Amino acid sequence: MTAAGTAPAATLRAEEVSVALGGRTLVDRVSLEAGAGEVVGLVGPNGAGKSTLLRTFYRALRPTSGRVLLDGEDVWRMPGRRLARRLAAVLQETPGDFELTVYDVVAMGRTPHKRAFAGDDASDRDIISGSLAAADVGGLAEAPFDRLSGGEKQRVLIARALAQRTGTMVLDEPTNHLDLRHQLDALRLVRGLGVTAVVALHDLNLAAAFCDRLCVLDGGRVVAAGAPERVLTPELLAEVYRVDAEVAVHPRTGVPQVTVLADRPDRPF
C-alpha cells in the first residue's frame, strides 16, 4: 500500500516520443503507458534507447518530438517543484563527490515539500529514517556517501526517491551493482509501494517476475509490448538480443523464466 502522505499513483504516458542528438535518432516515435499503480518494465539490449527515453520522463532531456504526460498533463509544462512532488527518479548517475552523508543524500528527497532553506521537521526526519530503513541503509546514515560501494550508493538513491513520497517513479537500472538479495528487495519494495513505475532492467527474469507489462526497445523503437508471458518468446530473444534461449513457466512462481543456451565447445587447456 502507498504510505500515508504519498502522492496518488498517476498514469504516465509517452506519446510518439522521439529524441535526436548529433544528427542521430536515439528514440524513434515511442509510445507507452503505465496505468495508475502499474509497474512497466523497459527492456532491450544496450543502446536500445531505454535510458534516453527515461530521461524525457523526468525532464533531463527534452523530446525532439512527442509528449510525456502525467495524468494527462505535459511534464514539460508543469512547474518543477510540482512535478518533483509527483514523480521521483532513481538514476544510474550518482551525486558528485561532495562531502555529504548518506542521511544528507536521502534528505534531498524532502526538498520539493519544503520552502527554500527550511530545515527538516519531525515529519521529515521520520520519513527520512523510514526510507533509510526500507532500503536497508539505516546503519549507514552518518557514512560519507562518496565512500560507499556501488551497491550501497544504489540503495541510498532508492531511499532518496522513497523520501520524496511521490506516487510515480522512474527507475533506470535500479538493481545495478546490487547483490542478489538486494536486487529482490529493491524490486519487492517498488512493487509493494502501490506506485506507478517505469523500470529499465537488463535482467529479463527479474522483469518477468516483478513487472505487470514489458515494453521491448531495439534501435530506439518499440518492437514488442504486453504481459511478460506474451513478450518473452524465443523468437523475440533471437531477434532482439541475438541469442538462442528457452522460455518456460517456472513451476513455483508461475512466471516466465529465460534460459540462454550458451554453446561451450571443448577447448584444450
Automatic annotation (TrEMBL):
GO terms for molecular function: ATP binding; ATP hydrolysis activity. Residues 12-244 form the ABC transporter domain. SMART domains: AAA (SM00382). InterPro entries: AAA+_ATPase (IPR003593), ABC_transporter-like_ATP-bd (IPR003439), ABC_transporter-like_CS (IPR017871), P-loop_NTPase (IPR027417). Pfam families: ABC_tran. Keywords: ATP-binding, Nucleotide-binding, Transport. This is ABC transporter ATP-binding protein. It comes from Actinomadura rubrisoli. The lineage of its organism: Bacteria, Bacillati, Actinomycetota, Actinomycetes, Streptosporangiales.
